[in-house]
Design brief:
Elements lengths: L2 E6 L5 H12 L3 E3 H5 E2 L3 E2 L2 H11 L5 E4 L3 H7 L5 E5 L3 H18 L20 H21 L7 E5 L2 H17 L1
Parallel strand pairs: 1-5, 1-6, 2-5, 6-7
Antiparallel strand pairs: 3-4
Helix pairs in contact: 1-7, 3-4, 5-6
């Protein structure tokens, strides 16, 4: 494994797992949200986002985290492994809810100068609502992607629980010890 994409719905632990993989393997971690979001929650234009991804993943090995379609178009032909975090709905929903509450209360800075406000917690554009809209779609889409001919080269690591994630990360460290 040299080039890895970590995917999964919001609240599945993509960033945490990608950071741990980067630490274990000693490779760069690229957070796609940090490349995508500009100040004041302005979205990067597609061509600029794709170029930022290419620039950030120019090296021989790296791990990314995120679900952007544009990123898949740029990265998946180059990754050798996709780690799909497919945790239960209750888990990701509650994590997203508590994470959003924490970010609103602490005014945590995200990706530049962005902060989540109350609109991230309630309403049609809120993070909990986003999880409701995307969770089951991602469960359908990822297996479809993995069956496509252009992605047959990808090793898929499908993790369905925190215990599976912990076990896989531990085995990753052991696997590297053997090399």
């Amino acid at each position: 494994m040299k080039c890895i994409a970590v995917v999964g719905t919001s609240g599945s632990g993509k960033t945490t797992v990608a950071k741990k993989i980067a630490c274990i393997m000693g490779i760069p971690h690229v957070e796609l949200d940090a490349l995508y979001w500009r100040p004041e929650w302005v979205e990067s234009p597609e061509t600029e986002f794709k170029q930022a991804i290419l620039d950030a993943t120019r090296g021989d090995s790296w791990v990314t985290c995120g679900n952007y379609r544009f990123a898949r178009e740029v990265l998946w032909s180059r990754v050798d492994t996709v780690v799909w975090l497919d945790l239960p709905f209750r888990t990701v929903f509650l994590r997203t809810l508590w994470r959003t509450i924490r970010r609103v209360v602490t005014h945590e800075e995200l990706w530049g100068t962005n902060h989540e406000g109350l609109n991230a917690l309630v309403g049609r554009d809120s993070m909990p609502w986003f999880v409701l809209r995307t969770y089951w779609r991602r469960k359908r889409e990822y297996p479809e992607f993995f069956r496509k001919q252009e992605y047959k080269h990808i090793r898929v690591v499908h993790l369905r629980s925190d215990a599976e994630i912990d076990d896989w990360l531990a085995s990753l460290g052991n696997e590297l010890d053997l090399e």
